[in-house]
């Protein structure tokens, strides 16, 4: 296997902010409830922008930071649960926007773990010698699948995109990955209609079955256990322990989940947190968090960085990176 590293990161957050006090005017909720139960204060809303457009802006920044052009890309992977269409893939739309003429392109559906699934694919494909430069993007317009009358979900989600460019390296930077799934628990978090299982009809629209449905309480309990296990397994695959970690970049679903994971791993303060500003952006959460942690100098060269994600599917994914930027 050839060594692989991240050489550029980018993000795009649409400018429109939706604050907790805005939500107080829309549903029966309060800033106090949202803040104490989730840690979220505001989220971004992409008005009339599909996921590919957000991905495009994040990718342009990542390519610029990598010192590469779109023509250098061999492959584009987009992780999204809010793709522009069923097909063509959002990755194909992004390829067209970027004019990345020689790049292959495909989407990944792995919900909040999509970015880590995508990084793992890119790492392995570059490592195997199939491609040299790969762009991985997590991009979501969750506002398009949110039921704005359901207070149990509409306060949680936001829109955004994060991107990473990976390339061949001389020293090992990606050290390990652990991906997992439990499809038997699909009912805990899903969008019931719109696919071949329940095609769109007037009834499904009336019943809001094209929106996110979540059993938050049950999910919460699984999330903590699964994220702790995933981080421990990926670290042990890299021959490391939680105390060796310099920065945990977790999926940003709930501050209480992150706090419980940090407590269990005994890694106080070694965690990046931006959930308060953006809410849960599914595949984009970890991608944007990684980008911001680096931009804010919370991650430096040589650090052991652990990405740790969990989401609908159920799916989870963690990878360990010895930071090389
Ligand atoms: O990204 C994928 C992974 N996602 C997750 O892992 C999410 C995991 N789950 C969670 O983060 C939390 O379960 C939630 C934030 C979704 C909910 O927090 P909770 O502490 O589990 O609340 P709950 O669902 O048990 O509801 C507690 C109470 C209920 O009222 P009663 O029955 O106790 O009277 C709800 O009706 O809070 C009520 N409630 C609200 N009240 C004000 C639910 N949503 C709201 C709201 N504002 N927005």
Give your account of this protein's structure.
It is a single chain. The two termini are 20 Å apart. This protein folds into two domains: 4-171, Peroxisomal Thiolase, Chain A, domain 1 (3-Layer(aba) Sandwich); 175-322, Peroxisomal Thiolase, Chain A, domain 1 (3-Layer(aba) Sandwich), CATH 3.40.47.10. Helix 3 (51-66) crosses helix 4 (90-98) and helix 8 (216-237) runs parallel beside helix 9. The chain has eleven helices and 13 strands. The longest helix is centred in the last third of the chain and has 22 residues, at 216-237. It is an alpha/beta fold and 325 residues long. The strands form four sheets. Strands 1-7-6-4-5 form a five-stranded mixed sheet, with helices on both faces. The mean pLDDT is 97. The radius of gyration is 18 Å and the shape is globular. It has helices at residues 20-24, 31-38, 51-66, 90-98, 114-127, 151-154, 202-206, 216-237, 255-265, 275-278, 283-295; strands spanning 4-12, 16-19, 42-45, 75-79, 104-108, 133-141, 159-168, 174-181, 189-190, 213-214, 247-250, 304-311, 315-322. The structure holds oxa(dethia)-CoA. The site of oxa(dethia)-CoA has 22 residues, from helix 2, helix 6, helix 8 and strand 12. Oxa(dethia)-CoA is lined by residues 29, 33-34, 37-38, 112, 151-152, 155, 189, 216-217, 219-220, 223, 253-254, 257, 280, 310-312.
């Amino acid at each position: 296997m050839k060594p692989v590293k991240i050489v550029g990161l980018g993000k795009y957050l649409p400018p429109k902010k939706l604050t907790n006090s805005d939500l107080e005017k829309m549903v029966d909720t309060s800033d106090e409830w949202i803040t104490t139960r989730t840690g979220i204060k505001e989220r971004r809303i992409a008005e009339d922008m599909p996921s590919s457009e957000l991905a495009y802006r994040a990718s342009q920044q990542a390519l610029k930071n990598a010192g590469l052009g779109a023509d250098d890309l061999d492959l584009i992977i987009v992780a999204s649960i809010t793709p522009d269409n069923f097909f063509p893939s959002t990755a194909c739309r992004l390829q067209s926007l970027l004019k990345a003429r020689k790049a292959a392109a495909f989407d990944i559906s792995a919900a909040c773990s999509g970015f880590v699934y995508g990084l793992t694919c890119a790492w392995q494909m570059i490592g195997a010698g199939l491609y040299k430069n790969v762009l991985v993007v997590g991009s979501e317009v969750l506002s398009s699948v949110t039921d704005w009358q359901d207070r149990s979900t509409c306060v949680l989600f936001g829109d955004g995109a994060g991107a990473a460019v990976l390339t061949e390296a001389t020293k090992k930077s990606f050290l390990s990955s652990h991906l997992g799934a439990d499809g038997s628990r699909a009912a805990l978090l899903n969008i019931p209609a719109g696919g071949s299982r329940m095609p769109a009809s007037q009834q499904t629209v009336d019943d809001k079955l094209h929106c996110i449905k979540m059993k938050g309480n049950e999910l919460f309990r699984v999330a903590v256990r699964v994220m702790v296990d995933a981080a421990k397994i990926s670290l042990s695959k890299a021959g490391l322990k939680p105390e060796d970690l310099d920065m945990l970049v977790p999926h940003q679903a709930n501050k209480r989940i992150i706090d419980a994971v940090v407590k269990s791993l005994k890694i106080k303060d070694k965690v990046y947190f931006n959930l308060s500003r953006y809410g849960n952006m599914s595949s984009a959460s970890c991608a944007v968090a990684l980008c911001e942690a680096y931009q804010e100098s919370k991650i430096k060269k040589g650090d052991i960085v652990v990405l740790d994600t969990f989401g609908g599917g159920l799916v989870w994914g963690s990878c360990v990176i010895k930071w090389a930027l």
